Amino acid sequence: MSDQSRRPRKPGKPYRRPKKDPVRILAFEALRAVDERDAYANLVLPPLLRRAREGGDFDARDAALATELVYGTLRRQGTYDAVVAACVDRPLREVDPPVLDVLSLGAHQLLGTRIPTHAAVSASVELARVVLGDGRAKFVNAVLRKVAQHDLDGWLERVAPPYDEDPEDHLAVVHSHPRWIVSALWDSLGGGRDGIEELLRADNERPEVTLVARPGRATPGELLGEEAALPGRWSPYAVRLSEGGEPGAIPAVADGRAGVQDEGSQLVALAVANAPLDGPDHRWLDGCAGPGGKAALLAALAAERGAALLASEKQPHRAGLVAKALAGNPGPYQVVAADGTRPPWRPGSFDRVLVDVPCTGLGALRRRPEARWRRRPDDLDGFAPLQRGLLRGALEAVRVGGVVGYATCSPHLAETRAVVADLLKQFPDTELLDARPLLPGVPELGEGPDVQLWPHLHGTDAMYLALIRRTG
Question: Considering the chain, what percentage of its residues have pLDDT values greater than 70?
Answer without folding.
Answer: 96
